[in-house]
Each structure stands twice: as C-alpha cells, then as structure tokens.
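Hey team,

Filing this mostly as a record. A colleague (T.K.) asked me to run one chain through the structure pipeline before their review meeting, and I want the input and output archived in the tracker in case anyone asks later how it was produced. No errors, nothing strange. Just documentation.

Input sequence:
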Amino acid sequence: MQVFENRWGSKAGDFLAMNLRGTKSNRDAAGARVTVLLEGEERSPLTRTVRLGEGFQSQSSKRLHFGLGKNAKIASVTVRWPGPTFATETFSGIQKNKFHLLVEGTGKASITDPRKGLFQTPEKAAVKDEERIPKPEGPNSILLQTRQLFPQIRYKDLATGRT
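Output structure:
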C-alpha cells in the first residue's frame, strides 16, 4: 500500500470537473471526448475521454477532472459525443472550481453537488417485496407456482468416514 500526501496547500490551482450524460449516444457517454481551451493557450487544448474500464475487473471514474493552474480563464468547452454521427457540441455556463453535468443536446452546463446521491436513507433503501419479485417477460418465461425441490445427494464426511 502507498500513501500520498498533498503538500501543495495554498499553491493549488483551479480545476474543472464534469460528468457527462448522453441522450442520443450511450447514457454514460462512454467514449465521449471533452476539449477545454483556456484563454491565451488555444494552441494547448486540455483533452479527456470518458472511459468506463481499462483492465480486468476494473472501472474508471466517470467524472472528468481538468487541472487548470492559477488564474486560468476558460475560453470554451467542447464535447465530441460517441456514436454514429460523432456530434460536436460546445457548452456554455462553465465555471472553474465547480462540478458540472453536461447533458447531450442541451448546450448548457449545470452545476452539481458531488456529494448528492452518495448516501441513502433507510426509507429510500427499502425495497418492497413486489418490486423484488421478477415479473415474467414474454412467451418463453415460466413462473413457477411452487418451490422446486433439490435432489437428495449422498456424501461421505472425510473427517469421520460417515455417510
């Protein structure tokens, strides 16, 4: 295990964080590419791609984070959405040091609370029995009316030798 300590303190710069939601492309916006241009640095765009996993049994964060440095001014934020058309969309309303949600087709960013939705109250977590029982779907589904019995299997206990 490694532990890293952030010693930058007040030297830390500004940031931009965002989650994307696809409407015409996939909902998680997997494969979407975001480009951030800073004023005075148009020749050095910041680019991130939404990735959902990169290896065996792994998952990446869907939140994109851009380190902007001190006193950076955002010129534009452009998203190239995944899909057959690879539509490009420029978003307005982007503020630094905030968490944003960019929804495909809206062109406007909304500020979000990153902590919202992390915790559930017991009332929200409770699931009713009728929601838990799967409903049959289609002509090939069979809803069993009684519990199915398992066959009895004889086995030998290796420690005692009993059957």
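Quick notes for T.K.: The radius of gyration is 25 Å. Residues 122-125 form the longest helix (4 residues).
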